[in-house]
Amino acid sequence: MAAKDYYEVLGVQKGASKDQIKDAYRKLALQFHPDRNKAPEAEARFKEISEAYAVLSDDEKRRQYDSFGREGVYQRYSQEDIFRGVDFGEFFRGAGFGGFDDIFSQFFGRPGGGQPGRGEDLTYHLQLRLEDIVQESNREIEVPRNEVCQTCGGSGAKPGTSPRTCGTCGGTGQVQKVQSAGFARLVRITACNKCGGRGYLIDDPCKECRGRGNVAKTRKISIMVPAGVEDGQTLRLRGEGNAGESGAPPGDLYVVVNVAPHRIFARQDSDIYLETKIGVVQAMLGTDLSLPTLYGDVKLSIPHGTQPGTVFKVKGKGLPKYGNWGKGDQYVKVDVEVPKSLSDGQKELLKKFGEQR
Ligand SMILES: [Zn+2]
Ligand SMILES: [Zn+2]
Question: Which part of the chain has CATH 2.60.260.20?
Fold first, then answer.
């Protein structure tokens, strides 16, 4: 099934308000909640509408979706991140439903869920200046992380030996307990105590990694930073996080781009703002200014009679538009400086000037 538009999924208009989105979700969620609707496709529908709601009810995620679609959302947020911070409980509390967390554990296979050792996600903060993002660039970053131990190949067992399956959990790493409470049927899955959730035991640990299966390394990773990237934008590098346990997949690396405030330029999306001052005579007679931009100096002609606070547009000297064609503009606000002290000669001239007007 092709991924449907989130707004379509909830049956609301593109510009729908938060309340409209909430109402639409409430209605659909009660209809498709797996505790109430036993149709085979209900669970998938429920997950679909819950995901749509999770994204559209969050300003930041909704903006990302509106600009870049589902791909954009998936690029920036993991499945867990999409649902993080959303209070689904408000829709179901007291409605006779099973614990909502349990439903989501089913969706995402947590906790444990057969993949107890997936490596942790890592976050790296990349500091950039405005000058760094006028074009796409390749950056090399050094990331301290855990990597698979080369000595034991990640098994954690001394070369020549191998881990043995845990008898208590039969190698699954987890034990199940089923509880019934009224309508709710809770399946509690907990990690096996004997093996710590790993599903295996190591009698003879590898000396290099002391049985952990991975070792701390600082890895140079090269990343492509898109032109015009926003401050706070996150780039996701799949599989570049910490190594997983015993062959489990690695986590992801999230590179958060921080664009430092500039000494003279301010930024608004792809537009750049600069303030400059000219003298009162320049403002009256007009002048040519040489002004800095992110691409070097440009000449700006100030016409005679320019009023204080006038804003001039220098076309195409802003940042490249992120994820889009073209560039923003640079806006130059011109302030007029009135001299605080004058010589006698200047006063004489200005008096004559005043009389002539
Ligand atoms: Zn090892
Ligand atoms: Zn076990």
Answer: 116-158+205-260, 266-356
Torsion angle, CA of 187/192/193/198, rounded to 10 degrees?
-150
What is the Å distance from ligand 2's center to 163 Cα?
Answer: 12
pLDDT of residue 101: 52
- Give the ranges where 77-116 is alpha helix by DSSP (H): 79-83, 89-92, 100-108
Q: Which fold has domain 1-110?
A: Helix Hairpins (1.10.287)
Ligand 1 being an ion, which residues bring their Cβ within 5 A of it? 149, 151-152, 206, 208-209
Above 50 in pLDDT, residue 1? no
Query: pLDDT per residue over 123-181, tens digit each?
Result: 999 999 999 999 999 999 999 999 999 999 888 899 999 889 999 888 888 888 777 66
Tell me, in angstroms, the distance from the centre of ligand 1 to residue 207's CA: 6
Q: How confident is the model at residue 212 (pLDDT cuts 50, 70, 90)?
A: confident
CATH 2.60.260.20 for domain 266-356: yes
How many angstroms does the Cα of residue 151 sit away from the middle of ligand 1?
5
Question: Is 1.10.8.60 the CATH classification of the domain at 116-158+205-260?
Answer: no
Give 152 Cα–ligand 1 centroid separation in angstroms.
Answer: 4
Calculate how far, in angstroms, residue 213's C-alpha sits from the geometric centre of ligand 2: 17
Report residue 348 as tokens: 């004489």
Distance, in Å, from the CA atom of 153 to the CA atom of 214, rounded to the nearest integer, reads 9
- Looking at the DSSP bridge assignments, the partners of residue 339 are none
Question: Model-level pTM greater than 0.85?
Answer: no
CA of 175 to the centre of ligand 2 (A): 8
Question: Higher pLDDT residue, 82 or 11?
Answer: 11
